[in-house]
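Before the break, one more example. Copy the sequence into your notebook; we will annotate it together after we see the structure.
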Amino acid sequence: MLVYTAGMRTKNLCLLLALFAGLCWTACVCDAPPAVAEGEGEGEGEGEGEGEGEGEGEGEGECTTDDQCDAGEVCSIAGVCVAAPCASDADCPAGQTCGAGGVCEGAPCTGDGDCSAGQVCDTTTGTCEQAGCTSDDQCPAGQVCGASGSCERGPCTSDTDCDAGQICDIDGRCSDSPLVDPYEAFCSGSGSVVGIGGTTGGDLCLGDVVQQAFQFGFCACSDVQMTGSNVLVDSFDSANGSYDSQTPGQDGHLGVNGAANITANMSVNGSMVIGGGGVSLPNSGNQHISGDLYVYGNAASGAQTPVGHDAFVQGTCSGFHIAGDLYSDDIADDTSLVDGTKNVFTIPQIDPCPCAEDQLLDIAAIVDFGATNNDNAVAVDDPNTPEVETFDAEQWADPLVPGPATLELPCGRFYVHGIVQTQGITIHATGRTVLFVDGDLTVNALNILLDDGAEVDILVKGNMNFDSSTNLGDVDHPSAVRTYVGGTLLDGDASAQSTFGGLIYAPHADVLFGGATTIYGALFVNTAQFGGNTTIHFDSAVRSAGDACDPPGEGEGEGEGEGEGEGEGEGEGEGEGEGEGEGEGEGEGEGEPAGCFQCDTDNQCGSQACLGDTPGDGVGTGTCGPCATSIDCCFPLVCSAGQCILLGG
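Here is what the structure looks like once it is written out:
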């Protein structure tokens, strides 16, 4: 039994994915968010101000040189600072004019408004100077005359409008390319390899994305059919070794937002959560669920399917043997055997998988960015990999022209115009590697080999198809291989056996596997049809995938300081000076915790539940407290003795 202490679900994955206003690469290292509420605090700071005072003295001041006098004054023979005589404006300091009395008038400038037309204020000296330009015509091609009177680069529409090493950002400004100089930092880092950020602020690490998306060993946005002979979902933790070296765990959960029809022998070593359309388990035996059963709709089993914990069924519940309690809207028609109590309970509709359009990763946008922001050329110059002479973006794009059957990729981010080959391909990754596939990935077989410590992100803009048996990834370290499919199809040969070692994120794809399929890691898809035996060994190590990302900042307080300035008057006599000081205070503010969010990654409530919040409205209105049922905890967590926990793990 594992007590839940790490942030596991998001109040809205869209709060993270909304950062797609722009894209940037970071060698991010991601940590679980702190267990505190975000709040805006106001701190009280103590500031030290420096004041400048102007004094009016009574009596005669002493001076020996003009430098001891204010601007526009000179030291007279009598040793007193007096207004400087002038015959024209040229006799006065910049920013001042020669007045009718033959003295220079006007104060030094503080802004362009203090200066004459065609002049700008140099705020470092307080003097008006001739502007560098007054119209765009006075500037070089591609530049405009800015508000400060200096030539500036004009708005850009593409990277070609910018200087070498710069890109045109989302605001139409030329800025340094994020790939100008992060190569060494990228290759020396670890964890998630792609960071996403933009004008909305912050960076998004893919470690956070996969940690939040892969709460279940299998998750589908729509309907699922499993018609083979056997279905097994269990778990292991690759941080502790291979699957074969461990006793299978109970962290293997199955989530479906639509309906599920499973005719195969089924063993779910975890919870089954069906968000809409009900579940049908017509098999006459050899089925069991070790955790909770949640079904929005009717739940029907043909042979007293055991449920190891509680059951929550919005419709009728028939044919199950429930070890815990049954909560249902329709207790009168429930025919399941219940060891605990039967409770009339209004079951809320819950989607276990974050599949709303604003919750999904925009894979196409990332690949498009990678088309012009990659390390294809950098790899040529990498002294550590002399065997890599070039990286050809077209090498696998033509099915009639065989590309290399084996390719060793060093650390870096590489871009190809699709992979469409009739042969099998082996990719050997020796470091942190990203592969952008701008199109489909269609091969006879795709094999991924990883050196120790290596990791791979494969982002496929189109569909992914396999013509024969496939070995993809690393079955001993699944969390080190992440595959993202933006297309609508993930298709395997009907008779072939496929083994996947990794996390496969294909939220728009309809998955069709006719042969036996074994997955070490996790699978996130739209719909799925499995015709052969289906085995999913969930890698619990993904629950800490976000540990490699930069932690978000805690609540910041703003301090306001007040400074006291003392002015000194020049001149003999008693001068009265009035000074105004500006202080900068630094305060540590304690933000007032907002109400908690149900199913939030911030883990504001620890192992307690967030009670009373309305999920999905973006406003935290809940309070932390002991759970009453697993509905309070957010699946796949279950409620046990008032705590939200993971069974097994």
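Residues 1-60, 177-181, 191-203, 551-593 have pLDDT under 50 and may be disordered. The chain has four helices and 53 strands. Try to locate both features in your own notes.
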